[in-house]
Design a protein that fits this description.
Layout: H1 7-11, E1 13-17, H2 51-61, H3 72-82, H4 84-88, E2 95-98, H5 105-111, E3 118-122, H6 125-134, E4 143-146, H7 153-157, E5 162-168, H8 170-174, H9 181-194, E6 195-205, H10 209-220, E7 227-234, E8 245-252, E9 263-265, E10 280-282, H11 287-306, E11 315-321, E12 344-350, E13 359-365, H12 374-377, H13 379-387, E14 391-399, H14 408-419, E15 434-438, E16 445-454, E17 458-468, E18 474-484, E19 493-499, H15 500-503, E20 522-523, E21 528-530, E22 537-539, H16 547-559, H17 561-569, E23 574-579, H18 585-593, E24 597-603, H19 606-615, E25 626-630, H20 634-639, E26 653-656, E27 667-669, H21 677-685, E28 693-700, H22 703-716, E29 721-725, E30 733-739, H23 745-749, H24 752-763
Parallel strand pairs: 2-3, 2-5, 3-4, 5-6, 7-9, 13-14, 13-15, 16-21, 23-24, 23-26, 24-25, 26-28
Antiparallel strand pairs: 1-15, 6-8, 7-8, 9-10, 11-12, 12-14, 16-17, 17-18, 18-19, 19-22, 20-21, 27-28, 28-30, 29-30
Helix pairs in contact: 16-24, 17-24
Family: Belongs to the methyltransferase superfamily.
Protein name: Methyltransferase domain-containing protein
GO biological process, one term: methylation
C-alpha cells in the first residue's frame, strides 16, 4: 500500500474561496431531431458527394430542418460581422447560400435579419423543391436553385453578382477527405468568380487540418492575392460537442492594402472568443503557427467535453496551460528564458466520494519545490490528496519551471478563466470553487544554477538546495538536480555534494560552478530557495539518488553473482554497456564500487555529456574503467537492422536507462524503440552466453503498457530467465531483468540476502563503507 498522507499536509490544506465561476449564458446546440436521425448521417466519406444519398437523406427527414454546425442564433454574431449591410442598415446586399439543404438558416436571415436578396443553391432537386414550397409565403423574394457548387455558379448566376457567400458545412462535405481536394478547389474557384470586388466568403467548418490548411493557403497565404482571412470560434459553454466549430471569413481587399498581416485569429488556445482588438495576427509565412493555435483550441474543446461530467476514479494528467505571466521581473534570468513553456500543468482527479454529501470541485495548488514528491507527482498520490478532502473532483495545478509566480493571489487570478473549462457542468451555477494549498504560500523553487537547451532533450536546468531529512533538519550537504522541461515533475539526475573535508579519504570531484553565496537556506526575489556556496563541495559517489538505480545494480549483482564473483577473484573485468548517461551518477557508482565491471556509456545527446562533466562531477577515461560514446554509439547500432557489432563487441550486461520524449504515449521510459523485437533481439545476440543479462527501467502509467513491455522481453528471452522488481511500494518504476540463459540450480536457489552478504564480504571491501544497494530488501519476482 502507498504511504498515508502525512498529518501535517492534511492539517495545512487551506481553503480560499473565490467568486463563483459563472459562464455567460448561451444557447446550446439544438437538439431538434430524434436519436434515430443520426442513423441517416453518412457512413462513408464518399456519400457526402453523392446526389442520390442527399435526396434520400432529405426525403427521410420529412421536412424537419437539419442544422449543420449550429442554428441562425448561434451564428448570428458572425453573419453580422460578415454582411456589411447589417451595420450600415441598408440590408440590400446580395447573399448566396451554397449547399443550403433544408436548414432554416436562410429563412431566419430573411425574416429576423431583414435580408431579402438571398439565393439558395443545392444539388438535390428534392430539397430545393421542398424549401421553395416551405418558404413561398414567409420569404416571397427568396430564390431557390438546383445547382452544383463545383461547376456553373458564375455562369448560371453571373460573375461578381454577390456581395456575400455563406457556406455552413458545404466545404466540409465537398472536401471530406484529402483525396477530394480537386473538388474543393473547383468550389472555391466558383465562389471567387461569383463574388463582387469587395465580396466576402463566410465558411463554417470543423477545421480538419487539411481543410483549414487549404483555407489558409487560398485566402491567407503568400499567393492569396487580394484576400484577408479572419478565423472565429463558436463558443459552447456547456461543452455539448467535442468539436470546435470555426467560422472563417475571407474578405477581398485592395492590392497592397495593409501591413502584410493577412490572417487574424479571434479566439485563444482554449477556443474562447477574443475581442477584435485582442485578436492575434499572422503573416503569410506563419501558416504553421496558425494551425498550431487552432489545434490547441480544438484539443481543449474536446478535453472540456470529455471532462464535462465526473467519472469516479478517472485521472487525466499533463494538461498544459500556455499563459503569459501577468507580471514579470526584468531582472530575473528565469523569466527571460521562459517564453516557450507552458505556465501551468493540470491534472484532473475524479474521486469516489467518502462523504455522503460531497462538494463538486476544488482547485489544489501543488507547492513549488515539491512537484517531485510521490504525493504530488503520481496519480495515486494525488488521489490520496483528493480523498483527504470532501470534493468529487480535484483540479491539481503544477506551476512550471521557467516562470515566476509572485503569490497565491496572482495564481488564482490567472487560473480563474482557465479552471472554468474543467468544472463539472452539473454544479450549481452559484457554487464558489475554492482553492486549496499546503500551508499559506505557493512554496519555493530550488535555486537555478545553470540552464540551457540541448538539441534532443530541449530546455533543461540545474537546481540546488540543501539536503534535509524528513524532519526538515539540515544534513550538511547540497543536492544538485538535472531537470528537463519536457517532463518537469521528474528528476532526471541527482547528486549529493558534501564538504570536501567531510569526504576524508574518499576522493570526490568538485561540485561545479556556483555564483551565489550564503550560509543558510533563504529565498530570492522570485521565491527560489538558495543554498550554501558549493565551491568547496565534492560529489559523494556513495550516494545513489534513485531507488530504481539501486534496484538495477542490486539485481545485476544478485542475479549475476557467480559470474561476477569469478571475475573478481581472478581480478578480471566484465564488460557492461550502459545506455543513457544522465548526470553520470550510476556510471560513476559502478566505477567506484563494482570495479570488476568495465563500463561503456552510450549517450545519444552529446551536449548532455558536457552538462554531466561541468555540473555533476562526471569524468571518464579508459584507465578508469569507464568510457563514453556520444552521438554515434552502440545504441544506434542496436537499433539499426543494417549494422552489427564486431566479434569483439560482446557484453556481460546491458543496462537501459533512458526516458521517452513523447509523454503522450503513456510510458515515461524507455522510448518505444527500446521495446521493439529488433532491439531486444540485438541485445540478446550481443550478450555473452554465461551470465549475460539485460536490465531495463520501465515506467508506464497503466498495467497494460507495463505488461506489454514484460511480454516483449519474455518472448525474446524465452530460453533464459525474466524477472521483475518494484523498487518501492509507491514507485511507478519497474526494473526488468532478462538473463540470456538460465542459471545453475545452485545459484538460482541461493537467496538474494545470502548473495548480497557474500558479495559485500568476499569481493569488494570498499562496499562495506556504505550501504550502496540495500540488497537485503530487494524483492525480485
Amino acid at each position: 500500500m502507498p504511504p498515508p498522507v502525512s498529518a501535517s499536509v492534511l492539517k495545512s490544506l487551506k481553503k480560499a474561496s473565490i467568486e463563483a465561476l459563472k459562464s455567460p449564458s448561451a444557447p446550446s446546440q439544438p437538439q431538434d431531431s430524434p436519436r434515430d436521425d443520426l442513423d441517416l448521417l453518412p457512413q462513408h466519406f464518399q456519400q457526402f458527394q453523392d446526389r442520390a444519398y442527399w435526396d434520400a437523406f432529405f426525403r427521410e427527414r420529412k421536412e424537419r430542418a437539419f442544422e449543420w454546425y449550429g442554428t441562425y442564433n448561434d451564428l448570428r454574431p458572425f453573419v453580422a460581422k460578415t454582411v456589411e449591410g447589417w451595420r450600415a442598415g441598408r440590408k440590400r446586399e446580395r447573399v448566396l447560400v451554397i449547399g443550403c439543404g433544408n436548414s432554416d438558416f436562410s429563412a431566419d436571415l430573411y425574416q429576423e435579419g431583414g435580408f431579402q436578396r438571398i439565393v439558395n443553391v443545392d444539388f438535390s432537386a428534392s430539397v430545393i423543391e421542398e424549401m421553395r414550397c416551405k418558404t413561398r409565403e414567409s420569404c416571397p423574394e427568396m430564390e431557390w436553385e438546383v445547382m452544383d457548387v463545383t461547376a456553373g455558379l458564375a455562369e448560371g448566376l453571373g460573375r461578381g453578382s454577390f456581395d456575400v457567400v455563406l457556406d455552413k458545412g458545404t466545404l466540409d462535405a465537398i472536401f471530406s477527405t484529402p483525396e477530394s481536394e480537386r473538388h474543393a478547389d473547383m468550389m472555391m474557384d466558383e465562389v471567387e468568380d461569383v463574388l463582387s470586388p469587395n465580396g466576402r466568403y463566410m465558411v463554417v467548418t470543423l477545421g480538419q487540418d487539411f481543410i483549414l490548411g487549404k483555407l489558409l493557403e487560398r485566402f491567407g497565404g503568400s499567393r492569396s492575392g487580394d484576400w484577408r482571412l479572419s478565423l472565429h470560434a463558436v463558443e459552447d459553454p456547456e461543452a455539448a460537442s467535442p468539436f470546435l466549430t470555426i467560422v472563417g471569413v475571407a474578405s477581398r481587399c485592395q492590392a497592397g492594402e495593409g501591413d502584410g498581416k493577412r490572417i487574424s485569429v479571434h479566439f485563444d488556445d482554449a477556443g474562447r472568443r477574443l475581442a477584435d482588438d485582442k485578436a492575434r495576427t499572422f503573416r503569410a509565412p506563419d501558416l504553421a503557427d496558425v494551425l498550431s493555435l487552432v489545434n490547441m483550441a480544438q484539443e481543449r474543446v474536446a478535453l472540456k467535453h470529455e471532462l464535462r461530467d465526473i467519472v469516479s476514479g478517472r485521472f487525466k494528467g499533463e494538461i498544459h496551460i500556455w499563459l503569459a505571466p501577468r507580471s514579470t521581473d526584468a531582472t530575473s534570468e528565469v523569466v527571460s528564458a521562459a517564453p516557450d513553456g507552458p505556465r501551468y500543468t493540470l491534472s484532473i482527479v475524479d474521486l469516489v466520494p467518502q462523504n455522503p454529501a460531497p462538494l463538486p470541485c476544488a482547485v489544489f495548488i501543488i507547492p513549488q519545490g515539491r512537484e517531485h514528491d510521490w504525493l504530488f507527482s503520481t496519480a495515486d498520490g494525488l488521489r490520496q490528496v483528493g480523498l483527504s478532502t470532501d470534493y468529487r473532483r480535484l483540479i491539481c495545478v503544477r506551476m512550471n519551471r521557467g516562470h515566476v509566480f509572485r503569490d497565491m493571489d496572482e495564481v488564482k487570478t490567472e487560473l480563474g478563466p482557465v479552471v472554468i473549462d474543467f468544472v463539472p457542468v452539473d454544479r450549481d451555477p452559484a457554487y464558489m470553487v475554492p482553492y486549496l494549498a499546503v500551508g499559506d504560500s505557493i512554496g519555493a523553487r530550488s535555486a537555478v544554477v545553470a540552464s540551457g537547451e540541448l538539441p534532443g532533450c530541449g530546455r533543461y536546468c540545474v537546481e540546488e538546495e540543501e539536503d534535509k531529512d524528513e524532519d526538515g533538519k539540515d544534513r550538511g550537504a547540497v543536492v544538485r538536480r538535472l531537470i528537463f522541461y519536457r517532463n518537469q515533475h521528474v528528476i532526471q539526475s541527482e547528486v549529493r555534494l558534501v564538504p570536501s573535508l567531510q569526504k576524508g579519504k574518499n576522493k570526490g570531484v568538485e561540485g561545479g560552478k556556483k555564483k551565489k553565496k550564503g550560509s543558510s537556506t533563504k529565498k530570492d526575489r522570485a521565491g527560489r530557495r538558495t543554498c550554501p556556496s558549493a565551491q568547496n563541495y565534492t560529489v559523494d559517489w556513495s550516494y545513489l539518488s534513485f531507488d530504481y538505480h539501486r534496484t538495477m545494480l542490486g539485481g545485476l549483482i544478485a542475479l549475476s553473482y557467480p559470474h561476477l564473483r569469478r571475475a573478481a577473484k581472478a581480478q578480471e573485468r566484465r564488460r557492461c554497456l550502459l545506455i543513457g548517461l544522465g548526470g553520470g551518477g550510476l556510471a560513476l557508482f559502478v566505477r567506484h564500487y563494482v570495479p570488476c565491471l568495465e563500463v561503456t556509456v552510450v549517450e545519444l545527446e552529446e551536449g548532455l555529456v558536457d552538462v554531466a562533466k561541468e555540473w555533476f562531477g562526471f569524468s571518464c577515461g579508459g584507465e578508469q574503467g569507464l568510457r563514453v560514446d556520444a552521438g554515434n554509439g552502440h545504441t544506434r547500432v542496436l537499433l539499426n537492422e543494417n549494422e552489427s557489432f564486431t566479434e569483439m563487441e560482446r557484453w556481460d550486461a546491458i543496462l537501459v536507462d533512458v526516458d521517452n520524449a513523447d509523454a503522450s504515449l503513456g510510458i515515461s521510459c524507455p522510448a518505444p524503440d527500446f521495446l521493439t523485437g529488433h532491439f531486444l533481439e540485438s541485445c540478446r545476440a550481443r550478450l555473452v552466453d554465461e551470465g549475460g543479462i539485460l536490465i531495463m527501467n520501465v515506467a508506464a502509467r497503466s498495467s497494460d503498457l507495463l505488461e506489454g513491455s514484460m511480454g516483449a522481453i519474455r518472448k525474446t528471452f524465452a530460453s533464459g530467465e525474466v524477472h521483475e522488481a518494484r523498487p518501492t511500494e509507491q514507485d511507478v518504476n519497474r526494473v526488468l531483468f532478462a538473463l540470456k540463459t538460465q542459471r545453475p540450480t545452485s545459484a538460482s536457489k541461493l537467496s538474494l540476502g545470502v548473495q548480497t552478504e557474500k558479495w559485500l564480504e568476499e569481493c569488494f571491501p570498499e562496499s562495506k563503507n556504505v550501504d550502496p544497494l540495500g540488497l537485503c530488501d530487494l524483492n525480485i519476482s
